[in-house]
Amino acid sequence: MRRLMYVMVMLMAISLSGCGHKVEMSQIGIVAGLGIDQTENGYLMTAQVVNPSSIAGNQHDTLSVFSISGEGETLFDAYRSLNSLTAKVLYLPHLSVIVVNEDIAQSGIDPVVDFVLRNVMIRPNITLVVANHTTAREVLNVLTPSEQIPINQLNSLSNLCLTCTGREVNYNLYQVSGMVNDPSSNIVLNSVSIDSKEKSEEGDIQNVLQMEAPSQLKIDSLAAFQGDQLVGYLTSKEAQYYNLLVGTSKRYVVTTVLDDEYKLSYEVRESKVEIKPDLEKNKVMVDCSVKGVLMENGYPIDLMNPDNVSDLEAALGKQLKQNIQSLIDKTQNELASDILGVGGKVHQKNPKKWAEVSGYWEDIYPKLEFDVKVKLEITSVGDVANLQE
């Protein structure tokens, strides 16, 4: 919010500077988010625009944002069509999120990335998100009670989830562009869905006037790509183990059930993962070492006994290994995409070998044999070591 107010003050200063081509503050439309949907005729672009008067509190009977949508044969044509729908000059430097629908993601996101990076008014450190089983327009038209500017919730959730749960990713546009054009790695992006408890109209004000909003933006999966094309999704739990293997986050939750009854929860606080491909043997070694805290224990044992703690470590380690192996199997069989960056490891270790196999790496990766080894350590059982007699 402070950043937005700073931008508004700077724009006001510019408008008062006496420039012959000045733009008055009231004529500026600060674009917070863009949505891009593929249509039969090209593209439908939706802009979520900030209403400065409402943000500043000068108009209490208006929404803090409004949205406009325009269609065009090309992305730039669609963007230009937005200007005929508002008297405001669209201001893009404060853009934080771009949402694309599944049709665009499946056909290829490279044109979108190219269009955005060519626009000098758009900062490259913005978030690119895939709309999961909904349209980008519908995502931008959801009002959220927790944010005056609804689209900012996507950016905030992405950063928070990556830090606290390890279930999301945070790549800027330069990183996205590099990865979609790099044959040694494939990218994953955050995906957003609309969690609706009841049918509501787009932009319904009732969505922010109820204690529990009928419709909420939900980030609970990752969109997996082969090159620049969407090939499937990872669940929120699978996303944790993706981030564990690629080393982009440090906190993850492992749960398991002992004796078909007693549930355990363990939070990883430190992790070290090494992925070692050996193409001569058609194998990939995955060594995973984690340390963490026992957060929940329903098993009736004395946790002051080191042997009992070792038993829990073995059970949780076995579960973590199964979860990692399940994710690897999905990347090989269902997605057929090297989102774990094994090709990049080959490239780093043996560039000459990579030059030989890079042309058909997507055929090699699904046939590799993975050997996963996990070492799990419980560093703390909590303040209350044993709740059950």
Describe the structure.
The protein has helices spanning 2-15, 52-55, 75-82, 102-107, 110-118, 136-140, 152-164, 173-180, 236-246, 306-333, 342-349, 351-357, 361-364, and strands spanning 28-39, 42-50, 65-72, 89-91, 97-100, 127-131, 188-196, 215-226, 229-235, 252-258, 262-278, 283-297, 369-380. The chain has 389 residues and is α/β, with parallel strands linked by helices. Strands 1, 2, 3, 4, 5, 6, 7, 8 and 9 form a 9-stranded mixed β-sheet that branches. A 4-stranded mixed β-sheet has the order 10-11-12-13, with helices on both faces. A hairpin with a 3-residue loop joins strand 10 (252-258) and strand 11. The protein is globular and about 70 Å long. Residues 11-18 have low confidence and may be disordered.
Q: Note the beta-strand portion.
A: 25-35%
Order of helices and strands: HEEHEHEEHHEHHHEEEHEEEHHHHE
**Structural class estimated from helices and strands:** alpha/beta
Count of individual helical segments: 13
Regions with little confidence, pLDDT below 50 for 5+ residues: 11-18
Cα end-to-end separation: 52 Å
The helix fraction, in percent, is: 25-40%
Shape descriptor: globular
Q: Give me the count of strands.
A: 13
Radius of gyration computed on alpha carbons: 24 Å
Profile the largest sheet: 9 strands, mixed
Instruction: Name the average pLDDT.
Output: 84
Subunit arrangement of the protein: single chain
